[in-house]
Amino acid sequence: MLDMSIGGRSKLLQNIGQHLGIDGQSAPDINLKLNGYLLLTKESGAEQLIQNQRLQTELGAQIDLLSPAKVNSMFPWVNTDEIVLAAYGVRNEGWFDPWALLMAFKAKAQSLGANYMNGEVIGFNLKNTAQTDSDGHNIQTCNEAIIRQSDGTVKALAFGTGIVCCGAFSGAVAKSLGYGSDQSGVRSVALPIEPRKRYVFVFQCNDGPDPDRCPLVFDTSSIYFRPEGKGGNYLSSLCPIEAEEPSVDNLDVDYSFFENTVWPQLAHRVKAFESIKLKTSWAGLYDYNTMDQNAVIGKDPYYDNMYWAAGFSGHGIQMGAAVGRAVAELIVHNKYKTIDLTRFGWDRVLNDQPFRELNVY
Ligand SMILES: Cc1cc2nc3c(=O)[nH]c(=O)nc-3n(C[C@H](O)[C@H](O)[C@H](O)COP(=O)(O)OP(=O)(O)OC[C@H]3O[C@@H](n4cnc5c(N)ncnc54)[C@H](O)[C@@H]3O)c2cc1C
């Protein structure tokens, strides 16, 4: 289970059967848990939290600002030392099982006629990319990917429209499209998306916060935790600081990171977490945009028939459905209709103009 602020997508997630149900089958179960998020801040982050809450409220979210005393009365297990303010998602906020959601999207797409094939794109045929459009203008297109299939065989796959959404490996795919290799022009710029290893830890605490009422808590130290099902299990993690980024050569878990960095901060914020037992852990790869930790979405600046939706930098699950809709609109209508994501486009990469999110924890 991973996490998200559900916000505007609550209609999709809360009515999943209506949107992704398939005739004759039971509605998908994404294990939606609407316990809200509780963001704790020190003095240095208070003004930003107030501004974020104002914007979220204007956009229809129901986020309350809480004083430390209010936090204490609602969640008495939180140690409010150094906390000056908190924001709590009162409604339509929580977490769900993202794999179940992904499978529900896939099953629905297949029921509507989509074909899936497995294979790794190991390159593109970039010969003869110049074509002429119906007005006689020269345009660049890329119409053939080189695929390695699961049995090891390699074949060329022709396509009309391509969307690069290869997560952590999107920077590498951009390289195979020529980005970062030309002496001048748009393809002289590399796409700054790379893998970054992140850990998730699940621990048990018999006297921890009530799982039916415990929100996902983001601490001032940037650790987060939330209940993981019943049975006294909680899930937690923290992003390492830039200077201590672990190698991405393997997906091994560094248990000392939990012992030395995560656990002490958990125990500081919730006294009951002084006594816990680590049950399981895993590592995954963030799709990290080193320029501004935000996704690159929209039309390719060089190839007329290609689009991008990549580099979500650890918050792609909560954006995925909206981005899918927006990119579909861009392809079908040649413009965004319901959600304008122009600001996420390649232009900012080409012009080195970072677009930073102010509501990241
Ligand atoms: C530990 C961890 C915790 C996270 N927690 C959250 C969270 O709480 N909330 C949130 O919103 N997000 C979270 N994320 C981030 C989220 O998982 C990603 O942002 C999201 O999955 C990105 O979706 P995507 O479809 O762009 O890429 P992915 O989900 O990575 O999918 C990319 C796909 O492309 C495939 N692929 C890659 N290269 C190639 C190639 N050359 N050829 C063919 N296929 C290829 C991959 O196999 C994969 O199937 C977390 C990530 C991690 C690792």
Automatic annotation (TrEMBL):
GO terms for cellular component: mitochondrion. GO terms for molecular function: oxidoreductase activity. Residues 25-330 form the FAD dependent oxidoreductase domain. Required for the assembly of the mitochondrial membrane respiratory chain NADH dehydrogenase (Complex I). Involved in mid-late stages of complex I assembly. One of its GO terms (biological process) is mitochondrial respiratory chain complex I assembly. Keywords: Oxidoreductase. This is FAD-dependent oxidoreductase domain-containing protein 1. The keyword Oxidoreductase applies. InterPro entries: FAD-dep_OxRdtase, FAD/NAD-bd_sf.
